Amino acid sequence: MRAGKERALSASGPAGHVSQQHSHPAPSPHAMAYHSFLLEPISCHAWNKDRTQIALCPNNHEVHIYRKDGAKWSKVHELKEHNGQVTGIDWAPESNRLVTCGTDRNAYVWTLKGNVWKPTLVILRINRAARCVKWSPKENKFAVGSGSRLISICYFEQENDWWVCKHIKKPIRSTVLSLDWHPNNVLLAAGSCDFKCRIFSAYIKEVEERPSPTPWGSKMPFGELMFESSSSCGWVHSICFSASGNRVAWVSHDSTLCLADANKKMAVASLCTETLPLLAVTFITESSLVAAGHDCYPMLFTYEEGPGTLSFGGKLDVPKQSSQRGLTARERFQNLDKKASSDMANAALDTVHKNSISQISVLAGGKANCSQFCTTGMDGGMSIWDVKVRPSRAPRPHQSLVSHSSKRNQYPQQSSSCLGVPQSGFCTAPLTLGSKAVGEQPLSVSEPGVGAEGSQNQMKDTARRSRLQLPLPCCSTAALPSPRAPGCQPALGCSNTEIKVVFLLFLLPS
Amino acid sequence: MARSTLSSRFRRLDIDQYDENRFVEEPEEATAAEPDASPEVEALLRQGEALRALHAALRSAPAQARSAALKEQAQGTMLRVLTSFKSSEIEQAVNSLDRNGIDLLMKYIYKGFEKPTENSSAILLQWHEKALAVGGLGSIVRVLTARKTV
Which of A35, A376, A443, A477 is the most exposed place for a label (fewest CB within 10 A)? Predict the structure, then answer.
């Protein structure tokens, strides 16, 4: 197992090299890197509460749990109970229970007893595969979407000591692909293959109190349809509530991203993207989203509340390698001969993930102020991305930005230190990728074959490309935590400050 | 012998129509018959105003209409408009369209590919290249996933 993993690491080429080089031995549990777990797709994954363990399905009937051991990931558990591929995993942070669902039409709730995970079968009463599963925020129930065109809401019945489920059927007309719970533990958003996104009430009177009214509606009996989108023309792959629950966003197979805002009478803003279809979306603040899909890189979208529009904020995976290496004459003729083109773009993907990204999970900061998120994909790899929100002092657009530090505990003061970055467009501070790894070497030195000038150009290039601007979400400031940097104006009612989100990716040149 | 001598009429039966869980499209409200804009488009073409003809043809695209004849006619008109452009003007025309226009144009381009005439494919390929540069792969995905075809 260990040997296999090392083979996988070295076989993945530069990415594997990268992960070995700057894996982070510091006490913080995150690895600022791309880690290749498998050579097959990761079907689904879930993190535990303190982000030291990840449970994932390696494209078979099992669930493997890996724990971070310093710089490496080691497999600590194998959960073998399903008879079909495991299609959904969710890890309840507070109660430390796992729920898994699979194509064998079953779901299991796993509890840790001693050092062993013990499964409990949940009868879902479905006759097609289960596709997705999510714990509710209070972890007293979970929802399973399936190909039987219904959602099973399961809760634990104390008297009989077993899990019972209730079905939401109408008016779903095709497979339910994705689910997300509203923070009030009652409303559930479901995206399905009948091209619609819907919000249902999953109120179970046995386990909870009657919910108070929300902008989505006030009467919420079980199974009530609170919102249904008009048909877009694609299967809804992923759906996400914002942190406050007043907005829901979904991505569908016709390369569109849509957002419904309950505060605007459920008006739907949609954006037709120029990329391949997106497969996963999550909110990172109340007005910005990160989505990823078949294009193998995450991208940022922002929602402007005033006009009610969505806009593309930029590609987040900007490789640091300069593509200005220049071809030799020989390579140029070879290209002309082999590919009948003389352009310099090579056919290899220069993104971190080498295949579609299928799932995004927020690691730190919650959906209101995400500071870190994780992507897994069909290339068997997992990548962790940092988000830095940098309030600007003056309401004028900055030239560019830049990076960073990998130390998580610098966030509270990082904004002020980042503001010290010169406007000239590149960071003079050395890029620290790991506490001991590359801390001493500024990028310009470690990049072979490119002089200081080259690295400057490249920094400007990437800095320019990675400039991202977020509008300050004025109206939803209740949900937005106040910026941590000193000297920043309070968020309420002030539209002068801008918030920029800085995304990092470290790809050491090979 | 393995050869069946019984009737094979059952093979012509479509059993999917009897499936109770069949996905049926929601019934569309019949929109009023779209005013046929092809005379206007033809007039613009004769005058040499290819760009305005393109905009007019896109505006009157019968996306909602059900009748195949109307769609055929619109497709023919569109093809005439597209072929009347000079190669150098294509890029400017594409840049003048908004996002929905690009998507609609892509749909017509692919519809035109389905029934190639003598030199239609060449000009359509040029249109395709320019439209792709503006609309990206997303516009092609929307052609493939569209449920209302032109």
Answer: A477
